[in-house]
Amino acid sequence: MRLALFSDIHGNLPALEALLADLRIQAPDFLLCLGDVAMTGPFPNECLQAVAALDCDLVSSGVVMGNADQALLEPLPAFVPRGLPDEQEIYDLDAWSHAAVGEKEREWVRAYQPTLRPTPELLAFHGSPASNTEVLDAGSPQERLNQLRAEYGDAPLWIGGHTHRPLLRSLDGWTLLNPGSVGMPFELRNGHYVNPARADYLILDLVAGVFQPQFRQVPYAPRRVQNGFLGAKVPHAAKWVAEWVDVR
Questions:
Q1: Which GO cellular component does the record give, naming just one (predicted)?
Q2: What is the mean pLDDT of residues 39-58?
């Protein structure tokens, strides 16, 4: 059995298309999207449509509800300054995304699930099984992980998104994984955060009864997403164009 898991597309259709092209080569048996499909990018509806079509075009699939997906189903809150970098620009971009998504696409989002368990060995979620905004990463306290395991079960593989950072954390009898981000795999360059034009995701192969992880990175041309921001007349488009860069 081969599973493909991906997360945090954030309205980046060129990245999603690069991922799907690679998936056709990798030929997984099951696809699992860990959420945050549409918000914060120039192609929100197109990404929701592409994810909705996965069952028809490739193989069986499932989608977890991310925090940005949930935001599409709720009224957009008023902007509240918190003193964070670029917070007004990010709010304006999210507001544009929120307004751009159609009602048919929102209906698809309503079907996303808080958690999924496609096999007995695997529990999938966005942030954590308890909350799609909780961060589980290399620094998460063991005490908190024990609390979650007691409440949500002892599957040997837990896989989440939300952080946009690939992760393989081996623990006592189980593993915490994160495939990274398809659409916004940010990194720090010369004191500034940028998004390299690559789609990060994870393959799991069942070998002798154990799932073996393979982290994959699929490059694409940054100009395609840059043109998307400009063509859609997204707020502060020039800023977002400058943040998408070639893979080193």
A1: cytoplasm
A2: 87
- Per-residue pLDDT, 204: 98
Q: In 3D, which of 20, 28, 14, 56 has the Cα closest to residue 214?
A: 28
Please tell me the predicted confidence (pLDDT) of residue 35.
98
If we measure between CA atoms, which residue out of 49, 52, 51, 61 comes closest to residue 8? 51
Pairing mode, strands 2-6 and 198-207: antiparallel
The CATH number corresponding to 2-245 among 3.50.50.60, 3.60.21.10, 3.30.300.20, 3.40.980.10 equals: 3.60.21.10
Residue with tokens 């059995």: 1
CB-based burial label for 36 (10 Å; 0-12, 13-18, 19+): buried
Beta strands in the chain (DSSP E): 2-6, 30-33, 60-63, 116-119, 122-124, 157-159, 166-170, 175-179, 187-189, 192-196, 198-207, 210-219, 244-245
Residue 162 is given by DSSP the state: S
Q: What is the pLDDT averaged over residues 117-146?
A: 97
Q: What is the dihedral of CA 42, 46, 48, 54, to 10 degrees?
A: -140
Residue that is written with structure tokens 């069952």 in the block: 55
**What pLDDT does 60 receive?**
66
Name the residue ranges covered by the structural domains of the chain: 2-245
Token duo for residue 179: 């495939």
Three-state SS at 195 = strand
